[in-house]
Amino acid sequence: MFNIVTWNINGIRSSQQNLKDLFDSLGADIICLQETKITRDMLDESTALVDGYSSFYSFSRKRSGYSGVATYCKNSYSPFQAEEGLAGTFNVHDDKIDFYDNVHSSFTDEGLRALDAEGRCVMTLHKFKKEETSISLVVINVYCPNAGENDERLPYKLEFYRALNLRCHDFLSQGYYVIVLGDMNVSHRLIDHCEPEDVSSFPKSPSRLWLDGFLHEGGGKFVDSFRHLYPTKEKAFTCWNTKLSARVNNYGTRIDYILLSNQLTDALQDCIIMSDVYGSDHCPVKSSLALDIIPSTKLPALCTKFFKEFSGKQLKMSTFFCKRTLAVEPSNEIHGEPEGSEPKKMRLSMKTTTKQQQSSLLKFFSSGTANSVKESVSSSNSLDTKKSEDDSKYFESTTSTFTTSISSSSASAAWKSVLKGPPPPPLCSGHQEACTLRTVKKKGPNMNRQFWTCSRATGHSSDLNAQCNFFVWAKR
């Protein structure tokens, strides 16, 4: 049995678990990750080289900490070829998969580079046995762009979909079997969404119309592995808004898919949504297929194992920041010291030997410090003796009162007596519970503005235990 997993990990460096242990726990032979959020300079050895696996990355060339996908293959499922991008525009290796006729003829070079520049695709070529013959299987790991109906990014998203469709057509025309999997950033049917805002226009969105045509029921060449096995299963979601705790009430969407070319339908054994696996705002999806995979004896050049920084051919930055101690004994002549005097020794060290501790603010109000400050005030106002005495007595009285307050209660209580905290949060209308303060992150006139909302987890509008509709702007 061949098991393959897709998972939008929402930052591979944010994982609190050892990657090998995490991958082994998924029970998969090939693991396709999306939204790794790292560029090559951020990739460390423990992430790139996981024992028992080979890895293949595509990085965003536009900005750091953005997008990115990675495919990890068990050593017994090593690919024969690998490349990044939908059109191979950034591949410099000879062992790329090739076959770009349709996709290259339908886009300009500039357009293809723009699609590949965000690090949204990794392809690996595998082989499996079928009736004494060897069949080629291409696994396409994608993180499709996110865009709303009126979003300026929608044309880019649709162009990405079109290029993906054309590249799949090129592979299928060569007799290859294809698996497309990843975060497609579209929920296909009403059953795949917790609560659409506009039910009538839901199936008419450009993204859903594209997916309709890509799948078999719409005349396409692919099958949605989960819906093929479970066509009527409800609340089968793969993504939740974690900022609103929507996963608590399973108030989410299904936007992560494993799509199989029609020839693989007979091999499909199961497809499960691993909603019990946490660590991201998405959960993994795993498909099992009856395929006898043939491992390659040689890894493709795209493998991270061959990166210079991990192959021992390039010095790491850490070697330039080792601790060093330099001893210097300057001559008498340099420092202008008299003949016969003993030379002074000067030591320079990159390592700090002593730490200067910052004095507590409470020490300022000790009797010794207060007296010192009092004397300073008195001295500076020596021209006006009477005023100096009055100021001194006032300062002494104030300091004594504050010091007594601190000594009679905890430091936190003392500060509370000086600084007033924020006003208590309002109560929501639905549950009469303290609200949560949130901040608008979406670009627009209200960006960074704060508001109060019900603190409960988001849920269906009919769920009385879910978040109510209370909303009020916070006072500026």
- Point out poorly predicted stretches: 324-355
DSSP summary, beta strand count: 20
Content-based structural category:
alpha+beta
Counting structural domains, the number is 2
Rg of Cα set: 32 Å
The biggest sheet amounts to: 7 strands, mixed
CATH topology of the largest domain: Deoxyribonuclease I, Chain A
CATH class of the largest domain: Alpha Beta
Percent strand:
15-25%
Distance between the termini: 60 Å
CATH homologous superfamily of the largest domain, by name?
Endonuclease/exonuclease/phosphatase
What do the pLDDT scores average to? 84
> What characteristic shape results from the CA principal axes?
globular
Put simply, the count of helices is 11
Q: How much helix is in the residues? A: 10-25%
CATH level-two architecture of the largest domain = 4-Layer Sandwich
